[in-house]
């Protein structure tokens, strides 16, 4: 059984989530299996869930399966007049939470709830597009950064991910996250000084594209490693499910995000050039 196979490994880990041992013994699987009435779901069992509200106050909410996270937080969103799904993250890893996840997956977790900042339209279409890109890119950076604390570090501590495997799976995405973060800082600076004349080539620099090129070269190796681990290492597979919990993105999902983001950049450039074609933008040709 998974719990017995991992008992020796778990004894070597000095800091573990409170309920890890119990969950491993229960051997519950993926989030989807919980939604479908998994044997280990306990309908009617009430859970006390700590939530950090948008005003930074601590709230203790009570939920029970099969309630979803969005249902759990419905009264809180009404209280703070949040019209749509807010920014909800797991406190430990800062991973984005799936609104449709079963609340049983939040056991021993702390949620951070924040209202998503609204994009203020200025009437300048080019500037508004840059503001929209900045909001999307910040979310992209946050997702990429969650890979190491949600999966990489815990799986390495548990001994199911070796140092070289960690380097193949997690280091490229961590490096890309910091490059994208630097791009958001530069874009914010350009937006704040828009009247001086935007130069988006400073955001999408050679270093920016080089980091994406490096990631694309390592992506195939990471995918291959992930397939091999899933096929040959049951401990790794089950712990990935366990670590995901109520998070929106699995490990494979996170690895694929940069590939999908490249197509979004292309769409952004096309929209930007189309909307500013009659303006004197100094880096139109380069873009």
Automatic annotation (TrEMBL):
Write down the Gene3D superfamilies for this protein, in alphabetical order: Dbl homology (DH) domain
Protein's recorded name: Putative rho guanine nucleotide exchange factor vav3
PROSITE patterns in UniProt: DH_2
Q: Which organism is it from?
A: Triatoma infestans (Assassin bug)
Matches recorded under InterPro entries:
DBL_dom_sf, DH_dom
The organism's place on the tree of life at top rank: Eukaryota
Coiled coil start-end: none
Q: Name one GO molecular function term.
A: guanyl-nucleotide exchange factor activity
User: Per the database record, which ranges form the DH domain?
Assistant: 125-287
């Amino acid at each position: 059984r998974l719990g017995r196979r991992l008992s020796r490994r778990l004894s070597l880990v000095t800091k573990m989530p409170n309920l890890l041992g119990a969950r491993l013994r229960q051997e519950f699987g993926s989030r989807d299996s919980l939604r479908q009435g998994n044997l280990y779901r306990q309908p009617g069992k009430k859970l006390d869930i700590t939530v950090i509200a948008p005003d930074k106050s601590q709230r203790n909410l009570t939920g029970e399966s099969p309630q979803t996270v969005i249902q759990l937080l419905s009264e809180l969103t009404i209280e703070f007049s949040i019209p749509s799904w807010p920014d909800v993250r797991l406190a430990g890893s800062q991973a984005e939470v799936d609104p449709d996840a079963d609340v049983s997956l939040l056991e021993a977790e702390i949620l951070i709830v924040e209202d998503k900042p609204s994009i203020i339209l200025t009437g300048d279409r080019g500037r508004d597009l840059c503001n929209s890109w900045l909001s999307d890119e910040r979310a992209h950076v946050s997702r990429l950064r969650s890979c190491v604390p949600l999966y990489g570090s815990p799986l390495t501590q548990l001994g199911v991910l070796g140092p070289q495997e960690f380097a193949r799976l997690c280091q490229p995405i961590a490096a890309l996250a910091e490059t994208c973060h630097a791009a958001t800082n530069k874009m914010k600076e350009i937006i704040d000084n828009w009247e001086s004349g935007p130069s988006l080539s400073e955001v999408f620099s050679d270093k920016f594209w080089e980091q994406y090129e490096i990631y694309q070269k390592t992506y195939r190796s990471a995918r291959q490693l992930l397939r091999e681990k899933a096929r040959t290492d049951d401990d790794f597979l089950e712990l990935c499910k366990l670590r995901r919990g109520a998070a929106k993105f699995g490990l494979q999902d996170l690895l694929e995000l940069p590939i999908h983001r490249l197509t979004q950049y292309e769409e952004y450039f096309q929209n930007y050039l189309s909307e500013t074609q009659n303006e004197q933008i100094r880096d139109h040709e380069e873009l």
